[in-house]
Amino acid sequence: MNKSNFKIVLYSPEIPGNTGSIGRTCVALNAELILIHPLGFDIDEKAVRRAGLDYWKHVKITEYQNFQEFLDSEKPQLETLHFFTKNAKKNLFETSFKEDCYLVFGCETKGLPQEVLSKYQDELVSLPILSENIRSLNLASVATTAAYEAIRQIKY
Q1: Considering the domain boundaries, does residue 121 fall inside one?
Q2: Nearest of 37, 18, 40, 31 to residue 58 by alpha carbon
Q3: What domain count does the chain have?
Q4: pLDDT (tens digit, 9 = 90+) per residue, 6-42?
Q5: Residue positions in the annotated binding site for S-adenosyl-L-methionine?
Q6: Nearest 5°: phi and psi at 24?
Q7: Residue 103 maps to which CATH number?
């Protein structure tokens, strides 16, 4: 199996279809998918596989029971961590992505926990939302957008 270009981390995802779609993006871009528990669904759930189609078997998945286990096991360098939240000062286009970086996303209803947002303030990234009529974007859409910007910077 080829070495991953980067990793997409889902912190306590709740909607199986989003995780399946993000897994499909991971296969397309040779990225690893990291899932941090608790999950709002069973990873073998039909909805995850349906969204991932027949590509799900090719997703490189690592699971951790909590965020600290992720940090202890992966030992990421601070500059490789990019935490996505709508309240970041820096946006996607002001961020430098390098090979082996981590794109970290919170759950669909709550986002990332406050303790993570507080601890990693300089590593927070947002996608521009130009309309005041939109409160948030879909997790799979944001992850895919961020992943394609990361691969553009890494490979192109």
Answers
A1: yes
A2: 31
A3: 1
A4: 999 999 999 988 998 999 999 999 999 999 999 887 7
A5: 106, 127, 136
A6: -65, -40
A7: 3.40.1280.10
Tokens 């939302």 belong to residue: 129
- Domain assignment of residue 116, yes or no: yes
Rounded Cα distance between 154 and 148, Å, is: 10
Domain membership flag for residue 2: no
Contacts of 32 (CB under 8 A, 6+ apart): 4, 6, 7, 8, 26, 60, 61, 62
Sign of the CA dihedral with 74 first, then 127, 144, and 50 last? positive
Range of the domain at 65: 7-155
Q: Sign (positive/negative) of CA torsion 15, 16, 21, 25?
A: positive
Could you tell me if residue 1 is inside a domain?
no
Residue 128 has pLDDT above 70, yes or no: yes
pTM: 0.93
- As annotated, the binding site includes 106, 127, 136
pLDDT 10s digits, 38-80: 988 777 756 555 555 577 788 899 999 999 999 999 999 999 9
- How big is the chain, counted in residues? 156
Q: What is the DSSP string of 88-121?
A: -SEEGGG----TT-EEEE-BTTTBS-HHHHHHTG
